Amino acid sequence: MYKVIATDGFDASGVDIFTQAGGIQLEVRKSTSAEELLQLIGGYDGLIVRSATKVTAAVIAAGTKLKVIGRAGVGVDNVDVPAASRRGVVVMNTPEANTISTAEHTLAMMFALARQIAQADATMKQGKWEKKALKGVELYGKTIGVIGFGRIGRWVARICKSIGMDVLAYDPQVTAERVREAEAVPATLDEIYAKSDVITVHKPLNSATKNLICAATMAKMKKGVLLVNCARGGIINEQELCDAIEAGQVAGAALDVFVKEPTDNARVQQYPQLTLTPHIAASTEEAQSKVSVEIARQLVRYLNDGVIANAVNVPSMDAEKMRKVMPFVELGGRLGSVLAQIARGTTTALEITYEGTLESTEVTPITNAIICGMLAHSMEGVNQVNARLLAVECGMTVTERKTSARSAYTNLIRLDATVQGRGPTSIAGTIFGDDQQHPRIVRVNHFHVDAIPEGFLLFLVHRDAPGVIGKIGTVLGDAKININRMTCDRLKPGETSVGVFSIDQDTPASVLATLNAIPGIVEAIRVAL
Fold first, then answer.
1. What is 315-445's CATH number?
2. Which fold has domain 1-93+286-307?
3. How much is the pTM?
4. Which of 132-136, 224-228, 344-348, 388-392: highest mean pLDDT?
5. In CATH, which superfamily holds the domain spanning 99-272?
6. Are 520 and 463 spatial neighbours (Cβ–Cβ below 8 Å)?
7. 14 and 292 Cβ atoms separated by less than 8 Å
8. Which of helix, strand or coil describes residue 76?
9. 286-330 pLDDT per residue, tens
10. Whole-number Å distance between alpha carbons of 302 and 385
């Protein structure tokens, strides 16, 4: 009999699924400390968590019997997915179950800000009657900017449109046509900042969205703007938000998520203009039931029948095929991630070419991983199961092509993207060696390179001239950023060259700006993997 432990509580509807299935013993704990989990996990085949439990590499290593981790929710940022993958542990989530709950909480926060409901409640309970001081604003006729136009963003936009608001939407992975179909107006970030009375974010937290709302971007917004974040803590810079509140640039903000949870930021807690909730956007009876039922069904099907659904790190196939294709799945995901970061725009068409030995390989999981790598920078919940559906929803056409021809490599994956506003962008990668342990990026557009797709990379388009590389090295050296590997290629002497630099740490925005200001540098792009 398999044993599964749920460490953050579990709804009775999900318990019933395990009971009816048989063959699986479920233990439910309302809360579990990190120390307790390390001691317990060795006896379980499955682990179910919400957001409280942190499934670290140490926990996964201690789970010697662990076969599957189920996240009852969307985000898996509290699970060390690479560590799970290395140990062969399947990580599953429930990408759709809490869409409505999160969207409704976003709307509730927006109304609370507009009518100062939290302040009114607090003062009433102090025995005060602040009728004149608590003058609100109507949302009818106002403009809301939705940053991130996935399922939650679209649901928020739909309701806002129904109450008479104008909706601007930004999402680099969703085409303008798809935005218009939702009765929203496609916009750039700067347009959203300049025109919106209310701004809400619905993006995952990653290198591109961390501190997206900061002093510089808030300065571009309308004076008196209202901000809502029910997505991920860290997208809004908390300290700089407080500065903007004090300056009167931001009239109010509603936060359900924080950089550290539970938050210990006393400054955030002191402003009446900030409406705060303890990460409860998905905490409704309906959502709790839905995520519990979905993750229970997924774990039962996997443990009893070997069926994988909504996995974020494993394709759906038998063990032997999985073993052979997994290195290319990982390479494809990394190539997709790199492509999304260097293209920096909406991809309307993606052509994937598989060459050499890959001509006879089942490439579906590789293609799905490529799409996941691309879309993960703009939306949550994308995985092997829903990657193609989400690509269609974003207006991205994906085509595959196979050829047995070998262009200098035994195997090659080439991605050719059509990007709105930037033209075609391409990248190619291969895996060297019979043991399939040496992945490389070998081509960027028409330039031949040799880069390991991991860690932090700098892609530099620059003039092929003496001194340019030296200046790049000087800027990085002054910033204490070590170059551990580099490669450059040119098509003709004295013309454009492309360099890929592997570095030991991320590149701050200030350093990137300095690089872009060097004479001879056409473009410097940071990539994080």
1. 3.30.1330.90
2. Rossmann fold (3.40.50)
3. 0.77
4. 224-228
5. NAD(P)-binding Rossmann-like Domain (3.40.50.720)
6. yes
7. yes
8. coil
9. 998 999 999 999 999 999 987 788 888 876 555 566 678 889 989
10. 14
